Amino acid sequence: PNAAVFGQKDYQQWRIMERLVNQFALPLHIVGVPTCRAEDGLALSSRNAYLSPSERAQAVQLSAQLRHMAQAIRAGRTDLGALEAQATQTLNDQGWKVDYVSVRRRGDLLPPAPGEALAGACVVLAAARMGQTRLIDNLEV
Length: 141
Fold this sequence. Notes:
single chain, alpha+beta, 5 strands, about 25% strand
């Protein structure tokens, strides 16, 4: 069968392509490949080469905030707006320019409904600039 491979680092792109293929019944199989990470947790990307040494050292904080949010959700926290705001504020305080930090349902990328089960069904997504470099990352919860 025909297949198209998408890195899960670009989570939204991967899921949108998956949905389009299903919606239009295209003879194509969409394959998501897990994000590769450095030992310190930073998602590997060609954009990382644009980071200065000090920015690279700070860049790991993006994935650290996603892990913190995922742990909180797995522990039963449901106040997603507060988690998103806290992560955004923490990153901004560390010199980031945050575009978004958001919790979404995996399948359709919509916000979870109140009372909806979160663990095992959501993804935490983020995009932010460190210096001139825009980094994206995500973590399934």
